[in-house]
Amino acid sequence: MAALISSQPQAHTAEIRRLCADAVPNGVVVAPEPGAAVEQDFLLLRPHPTADDALFPRIHRLDDHDLLIRFRNRDEQLVFEFWTNSFTGAPTQDDRSADLLERHCAEQFPGDLRRFRTRIRRAVPAEAEFTSSLQQTYVQDGVRMTDVTVTCTLDGDVLARAWATYALPD
């Protein structure tokens, strides 16, 4: 059983990775294929769990390059899932880069994070530049949603990209 994730707007991905590190047995490591970017995909289906929501992980190692972890509540409802092609069980520079991308998204776009995907080619230093753009706004299951893209560059080189989906406030 895992602890709940907080409702802090900029902490989702870091907390999900922490829960995953606690859930995955020691020694389970996946690495991207040689030359591939590090990718992470977070899907938050129930972004505001209650105090009664205990989370139960199910770990699926798909191959040497893919790890999928799904967290369900007591009613077997999927609360969130995390897929990555790079997992060591400990925080990495790529994780810190993903946190910077998420923080930039949260500062630029209001709403509840529902999905966050990153592709990191190189670690993101403090002096990197971020650009963001609104891709689309739509209604899904009666909820206003927006998709955004963030690109991180340094001296014209793309270091990382993120794609985020938010449920917009009423």
Structure commentary:
The protein is of the alpha+beta class and 170 residues long. The protein is 16% helix and 43% strand. The protein is built from 2 helices and 8 strands. It has helices spanning 12-23, 93-108, and strands at 38-44, 56-63, 66-72, 78-84, 112-120, 129-140, 143-154, 157-167. An 8-stranded antiparallel β-sheet has the order 2-3-4-1-5-8-7-6, covered by helices on one side. β2 (56-63) and β3 (66-72) form a beta hairpin. The longest helix has 16 residues, at 93-108. The radius of gyration is 16 Å and the shape is globular. 28% of the residues are buried. The model is unreliable at 1-9 (pLDDT under 50).
Global structural class: alpha+beta
The helical percent reads 10-25%
From the N-terminal CA to the C-terminal CA, the straight-line distance is 33 Å
Mean pLDDT: 87
- Gyration radius, rounded: 16 Å
Q: Uncertain segments of ≥5 residues (pLDDT<50)? A: 1-9
Beta-strand content estimate: 35-45%
Outline, from the CA principal axes?
Answer: globular
Helix-strand pattern, N to C? Answer: HEEEEHEEEE
Order of strands in the sheet with the most strands?
Answer: 2-3-4-1-5-8-7-6
Number of helices: 2
The biggest sheet amounts to: 8 strands, antiparallel
By oligomeric state, this entry counts as single chain
User: What is the β-strand count?
Assistant: 8
